[in-house]
């Protein structure tokens, strides 16, 4: 289960960064590309975000996270690069 959580953590972080990159495309001179990419990237990010949060609940006991660590794991999903930090520092025994 830990390997699956690591996969979702990294994938969610990448999809989050892809959304930000897509916003930069919108600010550039190609708004049609932005509109084309928004739905698939947004949908992928939404699914990966939900999977990340659910798997965090599932492996909480396995990782022996106290409440502070668990809240940090959940809050990291809202920050760019946050899930990368969680995957590197808090997920053990992969």
Automatic annotation (TrEMBL):
Pfam families: DUF3817 (PF12823). Keywords: Cell membrane, Membrane, Transmembrane, Transmembrane helix. The keyword Transmembrane applies. Residues 3-92 form the DUF3817 domain. GO terms for cellular component: plasma membrane. It comes from the Bacteria. The chain crosses the membrane at residues 7-25, 37-58. It is found in: Cell membrane. InterPro entries: DUF3817_TM (IPR023845). It is a multi-pass membrane protein. PANTHER family: MEMBRANE PROTEIN, MEMBRANE PROTEIN-RELATED. This is DUF3817 domain-containing protein.
């Amino acid at each position: 289960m830990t390997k699956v959580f690591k996969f979702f953590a990294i994938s969610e972080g990448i999809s989050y960064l892809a959304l930000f990159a897509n916003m930069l495309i919108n600010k550039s001179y190609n708004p049609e590309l932005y509109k084309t990419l928004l739905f698939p990237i947004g949908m992928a990010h939404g699914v990966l975000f939900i999977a990340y949060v659910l798997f965090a609940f599932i492996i909480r006991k396995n990782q022996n996270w106290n409440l502070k660590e668990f809240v940090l794991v959940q809050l990291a999903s809202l920050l760019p690069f946050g899930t990368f930090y969680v995957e590197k520092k808090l997920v053990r025994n992969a």
